[in-house]
Records
---
Amino acid sequence: MSQAIYNVLTNAYKFTRDNGYVKISYNMDSEDLVIRIDDNGIGIAKEELDRIFEAYYRSSTTTDFSGDGIGLYIAKENLHKIHGTIQVSSNLNVGSSFVITIPKNISNY
């Protein structure tokens, strides 16, 4: 769980320009902890959103940045193991929002 959050946060900071922002918020309902990470970074093209959780996939907008394209894949796989989820919405040159949902009763998995 912590690796998933770390990977998303690392990407948010890496792909956000100087003087940009990364915002973290959370809430807990009766069943889940929901963590939202928003940034105003470089964003992700709509046609690439379906692929960003694939192992070794790198968006065409990230060629100037270091990385192997494995972080979001690991995040999704780790969350899947505890029946959590990760979702993304993004606009190119505007920013991205990632929503991580973690079951409250994680010890059951």
---
Amino acid sequence: MKVILKEDVQKLGYKNDVVEVKNGYGRNYLIPQGLAEIATASSLKVLEENIKQTQRKQAQIIAEAEALAKSLEDVKLTIGTKAGSNGKIFGSVTTIQIAQALKDAGHEVDRKKISIAGDIKELGEYKAKINLHRGIEAEIDLNVINE
């Protein structure tokens, strides 16, 4: 089944991509969640027209994403959390806390664009990736300390 993605879907594609998916995945998840629509001849023509109209906007968006990636290049965040005497955190550090720390540092980033390798459950230094746009990523350093 061919579908047109309405939003970015991780490990599948980006908005306005035409992708081939299994029937069940398309009909039971993507379409009801509003993430995709069936790729018919008329919807493909509408998509083509929308792409023409958004190409001008894309240049500006890419420039903003590259500028944000450059400003995030040297960012080192310190996140304070409660931990036991052995260095283990009560709970874990999540993307919500990282997004809030970035906001406090003056960088507005959506928490859904932040990814961490594994769970942060101990004090120490970590790295987080921020997917700003197609092919534009920034990597920030995290220092998790005890409050």
---
Amino acid sequence: MTDLVQTPNKAVALNYDGVCAPTLSAKGTGEIADEIIALAKEYDIPIREEPDLVDLLAKLKLDEEIPRELYVAVAETIAFAYMLKGKVPGQTL
């Protein structure tokens, strides 16, 4: 499962396999953020605007697991993605 979190001109993407902690799969600002968002839209990946969360996640390295301190905020984002897709955890988005 991949989920995207964005703010204007900044975006991060998360990957969650349902087993391990979510990881940062993409991040960028400006045109790169626009490309991340465009790809998410093209592949029907849910997008959620969370400026404070994006700022924190953007500090991580690519493929790095999210820190424990962000589990609740990221869990809410993942739950949001599942809800939009009418799915439950364990199902592929």
